[in-house]
Amino acid sequence: NMQRNERWFKVSILYCVMLSQLWAFPFSPSLDLDVTPRTTIFHKDFWSCNNGFTGSSQNYSTLLLEEETGRLYVGGRGALYALNTSNISTSANLTIDWNASPEQKKQCLNKGRNNQTECHNHIRFLQRFNETHLYVCGTNAFRPLCVYIDAERFNFSSGFEEGRDRCPYDPAKGFTGLLIGHSDGEMFTASQYEFRSSPDIRRNFPFPTLRTEEAPTRWLLEADFVGSVLLKESINSSIGDDDKIYFFFTERSQEQVAYPSQTKVSRVARVCKNDWGGQRTLQRKWTTFLKARMVCSVPEYELHLNVLRDVFVLQGRDVQSSIFYGVFGLEWKNIKASAICQYAFSDVRRVFEGPYMEVQDSKWREYTGKVPEPRPGSCITDVHRSQGINSSRDLPDSVLTFARRHPLMAKQVHPVDLRPLMFKRSVNYVKIAVHKEPALDENLYTVLFLGTDEGWLHKAVEVDGETHIIEELQIFAKPQPIESMVTSAVQRSIYIGSHSGVIQVPMSACQRYTSCYDCVFARDPFCGWDGRVCVEISSRPQRSNLTQDISRGTRGCKENPGNGPVIHRRRAVMSGDDVLLQCELRSNLATPRWTLNGKELQGYGLSTGYRVGTDGLLIIGARTQQGGSYRCFAVENGVSVLVYLYTVKVHTDPYFPVEPTDSTEPTTISSPVVFSTASPTEQPLPSPPAPLPPGANFQTYRHMEAIYISLVAVLGGLCLVLTVVLLYVSFCTRRESRSRKFSHQNLHVLGSSDRKRSSHLELKTISSHCNGRQGRRSISVPTFGDFNDSFLQIIPGDDQMSPAKTPPPAPPLPNPPPLPNMDYANGLSATLPSVLRKMNGNSYVLLRQADPEGMSPLYHSFTEELNRILEQRKHTQLDMHPDESSI
Ligand SMILES: *[C@@H]1O[C@H](CO)[C@@H](O)[C@H](O)[C@H]1NC(C)=O
Ligand SMILES: *[C@@H]1O[C@H](CO)[C@@H](O)[C@H](O)[C@H]1NC(C)=O
Ligand SMILES: *[C@@H]1O[C@H](CO)[C@@H](O)[C@H](O)[C@H]1NC(C)=O
Ligand SMILES: *[C@@H]1O[C@H](CO)[C@@H](O)[C@H](O)[C@H]1NC(C)=O
Ligand SMILES: *[C@@H]1O[C@H](CO)[C@@H](O)[C@H](O)[C@H]1NC(C)=O
Ligand SMILES: *[C@@H]1O[C@H](CO)[C@@H](O)[C@H](O)[C@H]1NC(C)=O
Ligand SMILES: *[C@@H]1O[C@H](CO)[C@@H](O)[C@H](O)[C@H]1NC(C)=O
Ligand SMILES: *[C@@H]1O[C@H](CO)[C@@H](O)[C@H](O)[C@H]1NC(C)=O
Ligand SMILES: *[C@@H]1O[C@H](CO)[C@@H](O)[C@H](O)[C@H]1NC(C)=O
């Protein structure tokens, strides 16, 4: 009950948010920024063409790619591997087993640590030390150790060194480190090293080691580090500048933030490489530490993505042209959303040269007083040297005292164009890698590789400040976060590490595009159509006969889109039967269009006898005049491409001779269909692809307050009333649904081997919660285990579609908006529809259900319905003794 009420509460909150958006509409046009990946490729469909590596360990969290030596070094749990970059599957047998000793594990257990995850040696640091050696640190079951490795022979070359200052104890703590300047090596790391210690940015060697300050001003507050980079700003510097190291992290905000609901802020901090600490003040502390806030917000939504998850630095020819990409998310675990923001280091530098913040009356405010000379936090430059200041130790106390109290800059670092490059709902990106690829038009395109927390890789291209996701690939069959990712321009591969292994994925697989339109619509900078096949353009020295259109994705294909390669199938059905004409569109951006005997099919809906979904057309109760030639077109970028041709014959004689189905026709339907509901009265046109219904916006309350401060009270009251109503309705309908008896259910199994006989199946059912479908009715779902090759299709009964009998359940909205496609609490995930679409059954089950109550207007498609149901299934035990009310 608690759960239910919680869910209802969430729904009502949603309505309030949506309501407020309706109010907001005339003033803030909410642009739909969410980007849909053009194609979805599942693990089983591409797995065979990739190389993978799985050693005896797990948690392949640290990767070091060395293009020159052709090696990919991998740090896992209790082991290190050296793999061949050209094919990581070919085992060169270079493995170092490095486990924590049994005594150490025991001690770790005694400290109350988790023996499954923490009491192991997780490799956290793995970098080149000099020409011959690598330097490696591992957590060693909560007692970190470091060691040199002979890279050539790939074995330990020294005894172990104490690692407690260099490596976090906790395998899951944010950590970043750099080893720079071979042989005269310097090591910089940042983490919360020990359990319960404060986070710290350190220079570990050479002597003197440096740290951040904790008093009187804490420079870092619960910082969670995601990355660091050395920028060699000394090269060609006109002022004799120093090299700088930048650190990227999220921390608890100290300063007043404008968004009270958020407690964290993203930061960039920097130190100078040749900082030696102060003489008296800031002894063995950084004298050059400065940090600034990084902003990544979606202006349309007034949404501030405040948690930095990963960064990728794209070094330009000099620092001025270097940029970095940040992956941002929200601090609330139950809402999935990601934004990619792009920043210029020149902007970062400008912020570090701007005003400071200061604590006044225990609040952070911009400091407007006098700033001592030389400027605190700046590196030692020629100006300093001319004043006799040759190192940070020569800095006057006044400067160091000021630096100590003023680590934070007043100005914020804003992204290029003041907006994200990309925003994505329902997805948590956790890793990013960026690659520049020259396309056929000789422009250099930015290709983003984005790893999700569920083991997917999104490949996107930036075109004129907009991002187009070319494809999404399911890298790991088992959902798991992508832990590490590196790209190799030489091998044209991406190496992806996760809990279960390392995968080598080619940057492009153009052969996946099977027609000119497919190849061109994809807008993949790697791929071009050569007249017969889609090929990697880099593989062709002679490119004049290649076709590609990155900027628009429409131009260049010569053949008539109506005459492309078409799959022709025949269907013979009994009059009165339902028949499914499958038309699966490869592209999630395409919409289906159907014609019958050359005439546009219009008015899909029960009354017309047609229902259209993203994957096919259902003819309901086929009539003789519905026979003929059906064409399915994929409409993408304004071009209609013919993909399927069906010849349908409707027989009235029950004993018509069995026609041999034509050879191209599988006797089974190879993949399931998801229909969107099309009520006869209001939806004459085919609905757009199901995965991402538009209009799912979200804004913070704060925003609403700011704009309609006067409306707050009204809205609040409304929300309260709504909540009460919803709770009441939920309570009532739940009771109702328990007592409801359902009439006989008709099941037609189509597409099974004997297509003419409809069989009655006994369904294994689960009892459903009323909250899953707003308590309007309960639906049963066969377990997919039982119907491994089947798919459940739920068609609401005729009478429920009649508008007169559709009392909207609760919220008195004229046109209730679709549920936002975000992952609230337990899913309702936008990725599920595409998963469903391809569940690859070879038949589908049609469940007819007469429901006197009508369908909830909350649902715009069966996809969402199924989502809901599947979502419930995750949390519902199978009811071993189903009664009628559970069907
Ligand atoms: C990697 O494998 C390729 C062939 O598969 C081989 O030519 C190359 O020498 C190997 N590289 C290393 C570093 O082992
Ligand atoms: C990589 O090596 C594995 C094992 O030797 C082999 O099965 C696979 O075909 C190779 N992949 C490529 C792309 O050569
Ligand atoms: C790897 O080592 C194992 C045992 O150490 C051996 O059996 C196997 O043949 C080796 N494989 C290769 C490719 O060298
Ligand atoms: C971890 O602890 C659990 C219970 O405390 C025990 O059953 C399991 O065998 C232990 N695993 C290892 C690897 O020690
Ligand atoms: C690299 O460092 C290791 C470890 O300190 C040392 O033994 C080795 O001689 C160094 N190699 C070179 C070429 O300097
Ligand atoms: C590393 O390997 C070489 C040759 O295989 C061997 O001579 C050397 O003793 C090994 N070193 C260690 C520390 O095991
Ligand atoms: C530094 O300046 C020289 C000469 O102007 C130029 O050749 C070189 O590329 C510059 N280096 C960098 C990193 O800008
Ligand atoms: C290591 O992998 C296991 C699953 O294999 C996972 O549960 C655990 O969280 C991972 N540990 C870290 C530190 O990533
Ligand atoms: C395009 O050019 C390549 C050689 O560069 C050739 O192999 C291919 O057949 C050509 N395609 C057409 C359609 O002419």
Automatic annotation (TrEMBL):
Q: Where is the Sema domain?
A: 38-507
**GO molecular function list:** chemorepellent activity; semaphorin receptor binding
Q: Where is the composition biased (Pro residues)?
A: 805-819
What segment(s) does the record annotate as region Disordered? Answer: 797-819
Q: Membrane topology per the record?
A: Single-pass type I membrane protein
Tell me which UniProt keywords the record has, alphabetically: Developmental protein, Differentiation, Disulfide bond, Glycoprotein, Immunoglobulin domain, Membrane, Neurogenesis, Phosphoprotein, Signal, Transmembrane, Transmembrane helix
The keyword GTP-binding appears for this protein: no
The record's subcellular location field reads: Membrane
Please verify whether the record's keywords include Phosphoprotein: yes
Q: Which InterPro entries match?
A: Ig-like_dom, Ig-like_dom_sf, Ig-like_fold, Ig_sub, Plexin_repeat, PSI, Semap_dom, Semap_dom_sf
Record's superkingdom? Eukaryota
What is the protein named? Semaphorin 4G
